[in-house]
Write the structure tokens for this entry.
Amino acid sequence: MKMTEEHRKLLFGLYPPKSFANGKFHKISAFSNVGVIETSEGLVLFDISSKLNGPRVFKALREITDKPIKYIIYSHGHFDHCFGYLPFLEEIKGKGWEMPQVVAHENLIDRFEKYRMLDEYLNWLHDQQFGSVLGKNKQYNSAQETLNPTILLRGNENYNFKLGEYTFELYHDKGETDDQIWMFVPEEKVLLTGDFIISVFPNIGNPYKVQRYPKDWARALEKMIEKEPEYLIPGQGPLIESKEKIKEILSITAEVLNFVHDEVVKRLNQGKWFEQIYYEMLEIFPEKFNHEILAQVYGCYRFAIHAVYRLYHGWYDTGNPTDLFPAKKSEIANEFLKICDVEKYYIRAKKLFAEGRLQLALHILDVIINATEKISSEILINAYKLKIKILQQKEENEPSFIASNIYLNEVNKLKLKIINFK
Ligand SMILES: [Zn+2]
């Protein structure tokens, strides 16, 4: 299923604020969701959005309530969840209010440190993942300044506190990250999941991102089911209000994570290499996972297979020693062109394209594109043009926004190459 307008709204948080449970709970969306709980003694915020969207969240919050913030809870250290604090700090200073407590898991400290170490790299990476859609935005990612936690959950410990009429139960489980916290407010049975639930297929096995934790993720969701929540604020997407629907969403998400995990593990134990596991897994995808909450418009099943394999396996993934220390792709391409004329590759790629065998056509075209030996500029430009066409066609049929972006980035790069040729 290709991304719909509803998915776009969901992924970019294009929703008006939503209040529920006696008007004391609010969900504010700006890319990711911010959960707000109004108590008689002040506000509890679950996440505080990104640097880019913080002002939008602040404005929306202050249209709802003017109470001071007493607690900020970080669901995890990702950029769209804890970097939007600036307008909130300005308000606190301006009004002379006390600083709120900021609660996080201890692993978040290391995460912020890692972000500082990798500042430029992460900017580059986010431009890769989102650049063709969101544009390039340098300040989007910097962790040089952060609002640091004042209360840390250590190891697997939980943390409970009371403010006004509500109890706040905080639990740590690994999932999308190793520093995740989810929250339950028992008085109104409200569950705030952070990115454990993002209203589409879990973002696991993202081609750009570090390891994520499918089995722990599924266990966390199973723990959430035991709470019998009646409201669910996900990391992204609309508020979910029916008890049955929430149970269904948590269950099917746990189920798909368990499925991918266990099926890859089974095949690892059978001594299979990645290619075999991957293609076998594509054949056995159960129909029931074609569920709206598992729409593969961001993360996808194909990525999830990688996630599990990588969790338990090193980088040597073919079982063929040729691939252990491979020659440069350009040298290999040069050798192929010595065996067979460049035009034959182009003609073959065109034929494969005409037959709709797009992926194979790409591999053949790459022999021409990767080669560093002198090739006529006419053939090279034709190869670029054909690759653009193929990538565009793949993009049109690609549900995953992340994969789509990878195709589009390359299209843009190739178009530039053609311009520079003239
Ligand atoms: Zn996240």
